[in-house]
UniProtKB/TrEMBL annotation:
The keyword RNA-binding does not apply. Pfam families: AAA_5, CbbQ_C. Residues 48-182 form the ATPase dynein-related AAA domain. This is Nitric oxide reductase NorQ protein. Transmembrane segments: none annotated. The keyword Acyltransferase does not apply. Residues 195-278 form the CbbQ/NirQ/NorQ C-terminal domain. Gene3D superfamilies: P-loop containing nucleotide triphosphate hydrolases. Belongs to the CbbQ/NirQ/NorQ/GpvN family. PANTHER family: DENITRIFICATION REGULATORY PROTEIN NIRQ, MOXR FAMILY PROTEIN.
Amino acid sequence: MSKTIVNSAINSTNLNSEMQHTNTIKPFYKPIAKEIEVFEHAYKNKIPVLLKGPTGTGKTRFVDYMTYKLEKELITISCHEETSSTDLIGRYIIKGAETVWIDGPLTKAVKKGAVIYLDEIAEARPDVIVAIHSLTDHRKELYIDKLGETIKAHPDFMLVASFNPGYQKGFKELKPSTRQRFIALAFNYPNEKDEAEILVNETQIDASIAKKLVSIANKIRNLTELGLTETVSTRLLVDAAKLIHTGLGKRLAVRVAVVEPLTDDTEITEALSDLCDLMI
């Protein structure tokens, strides 16, 4: 059985969720600080960027916006506990009578000069971190052990990763030696004015309702005694606002889009629902 190395467009049967696109429609993004300026300078200097912050605070939207602004192709990998270096770099597959090499998403990005976004990188297997090390220092190269080849990164290649330090604290964390290979941007929930503006722009909901949704979110975020693994994200508020904008009752929309995703505890669910009913 012969082996053939090709730059194939065939999707390998990997375990990640891979998305590859070039934005043609400008994504809405509300700058919170100097993150746009920092990212642009990181891109000019080819310095990897680490986005850290809670779920639903705009990390992925920010990457979408920046690749649109820079007119770059974006390849996104949603990492999880089964994501391995093989999934990112590539593998041999059987095709007819041949064994054919298929480039993984990381290899494609390195070759063509795309931006690769490793979402929730701390969730991936340790060999993923090892695989990207040579791309995050002065070498800017990718070693493919199965081929015995080293590929120099395209001048336009950029590596961006994200993780949620609150959720992964004490469970899956990035080693200091890995973190220091990136510059880092911290994301958090916007202030009330900015978050309400985001809801209006994303869903065209009435500004008064947007303000009430943000007030509900901030109230729940401050209820630390509930011991919620995650609290109300801007993403959940956007979902609730969309439902309300299309005619679903406000209280029902908040319950199914904001309260129910937070917990399976019946008592906490009912208590939060009662609280939200009073506020909207």
